[in-house]
Fold this protein.
Amino acid sequence: MSETIKIAIDGPSGSGKSTLAKGLAKELGYVYVDTGAIYRTVGLFAKRNSIDPHDEDALSARFSNIDISLKWEDGVQKIFLSDEDVSELIRTPEASMYASAVSALPKVRAFLLEMQRSFAKKSNVIMDGRDIGTVILPDAQVKIFMQAHPEERARRRMLELNAKGKNVTFEEVYADMCLRDKNDSTRDVAPCVPADDAVVFDNTGLDIPQTVEKALEIIKEKLS
Ligand code: DC
C-alpha cells in the first residue's frame, strides 16, 4: 500500500482547528479524526464509573473495560463507548473538564496512542488535537498549529454551545478556557505546543472560508 497522507492540526480549544479540519477533510476527501472526542469519551467513562479523573491508577485499572470506536456518517465522525453513541453527550462543559483532567495522565495518553495512529495507516487523514504533530504523527507531511486571540476563542466556543441550546455566558466560557489552556499547555506529557516543523497559523479575524483557503495554501506548498 502506498504511504498515506497525514495532516496534523493542533492548537488550543476554540482556535478553530476542528472547524478547519472538517472543512479541509471535505475539500480534500480525507478522513477527519477528532482526537479530543476520544479523550472526552474516556472522561465520560470516568464520570459514569465514579472514578476521580486525576486518579491514574484507578482509571488505568479499568482500561480493559473502555471500548471506544469511531464511525463516519457522510464524513461526520461519531464516537461510541461500547455500543452507545456518545458524540453529543461528551460536549458539555463538565465533560470538557473531565477530558482535560484525564488527558494529563501519561497512562491514558499511552493507552490511546496506537488507536489514534491506526486511523492514519488506513487512509489519508486530517487529525486534530494537541499533540498530533509532536507525538501521534511526528511524520505527518503537513503540520499546522492554530492560534487565535483568547477572547475570540472564548466567543466562538460560547456561540457554538449556545447554538446547541446550552446556556453559558462569555465569562464562564472564558474562565473554563483559560483553565484548560493552562492544564493543556503546562502538563508534563504531550503539552499543547507547536512541533518544530509546524506552520503556526493565527486565524484571529478570519472567517471560516478564509481560514480554509489559507490552510489549503499551506498544504499545497508543503505537499508540492
Ligand atoms: O479538542 P477538545 O476540546 O475536544 O479536547 C478535549 C480535551 O482533551 C482538552 O482539554 C485537551 C485534551 N486533548 C489532548 O490532550 N490531546 C489531544 N490530542 C486532544 C485533546
User: Anything to note?
Assistant: The pocket of 2'-deoxycytidine-5'-monophosphate is lined by residues 13, 35-36, 39-40, 96, 99-100, 103, 129-131, 180, 184 (CB under 6 Å). The chain has nine helices and eight strands. Strands lie at 6-10, 31-34, 68-73, 76-81, 84-85, 125-129, 142-147, 199-202.
